[in-house]
Design brief:
This protein is an all-alpha fold. Helix content is 64%, strand content 2%. It has one domain. Strands 1-2 form a two-stranded antiparallel sheet. Helix 2 packs across helix 4.
Length: 253
């Protein structure tokens, strides 16, 4: 039998009453909303401090590691890949009640350590190098997308939003492809890109807390219908200092 698939409709936002509410486009039912802190904490909360420490402690050495510490680089490659996937999975699947920021942070860091253990051994070396190359390209792409208010290609339509991810994915594939022909160069660039990204994130968290790169990452990754009011309602407006930090980190890459 012939089946026609209809495109997924976006949730309906309504702020007629002065309070932004989100409705299911198919049933008209109200979708409960929760805060999109996504494990980043608020202000100088414990979760926020953990992310500052993690970003700088991991990012700064990684940016300088290159070929000199292959166990560090391969471990970080697999660790970052697993941590980002787990974080994205959680923030896009939790309900409006969510999960405590510190709890989510510790889960993500535990996954980073697990991935790091895999990449530190010889059997995980190829996976670690590959993940590092892809992470380097993706981290560069993310910074480029976050340079502009509401992303490089703005627009709430799904096609416009996906276009940002297509460009990020292309840079990620490019970062991985470089390893095929110029492995040493790919490793050095991957380390520098991922390392400067994390370092810039840590510094930005100190300066702008959750309103800078943190907000941009949540705006880019989080499309949970229970977070729509926070994410789309609040948008993403990077402070000048955030833009400067990202540009400098890209140049240093």
């Amino acid at each position: 039998p012939h089946v026609t698939l209809e495109p997924r409709r976006a949730p309906i936002l309504n702020n007629v009453t002065g309070e932004l509410k989100v409705f299911d486009p198919n049933t008209g039912a109200l979708i409960p909303q929760g805060p999109a802190t996504d494990g980043g904490g608020v202000g100088s909360s414990p979760a926020a401090l953990v992310w500052i420490a993690f970003s700088i402690v991991v990012g700064a050495p990684l940016a300088l590691a290159g070929l000199r510490g292959w166990r560090l680089t391969t471990a970080t490659g697999t660790g970052l890949a697993l941590a980002v996937c787990i974080w994205a999975g959680f923030i896009n699947s939790v309900s409006d009640t969510g999960i405590a920021d510190l709890t989510l942070t510790l889960i993500v860091l535990a996954c980073f350590l697990l991935g790091g253990v895999i990449g530190a051994f010889n059997f995980g070396r190829v996976a670690g190098i590959t993940c590092l190359g892809i992470s380097g390209g993706v981290s560069a792409g993310i910074r480029i997308m976050l340079l502009r208010e509401d992303l490089l290609i703005p627009g709430r339509e799904s096609g416009m939003f996906i276009a940002n991810w297509i460009l990020i994915a292309a840079l990620g594939v490019g970062g991985g492809a470089v390893l095929i022909w110029w492995q040493r160069t790919g490793i050095v660039v991957g380390c520098a890109s991922a390392g400067t990204f994390l370092t810039a994130l840590g510094i930005d968290l100190i300066i702008n807390q959750q309103s800078g790169m943190s907000r941009g990452l949540r705006f880019l990754f989080d499309r949970n219908t229970s977070h729509i009011a926070d994410i789309l309602g609040g948008g993403y407006k990077p402070p000048v200092s955030t833009i400067v930090l990202m540009v400098v980190s890209l140049v240093l890459t």
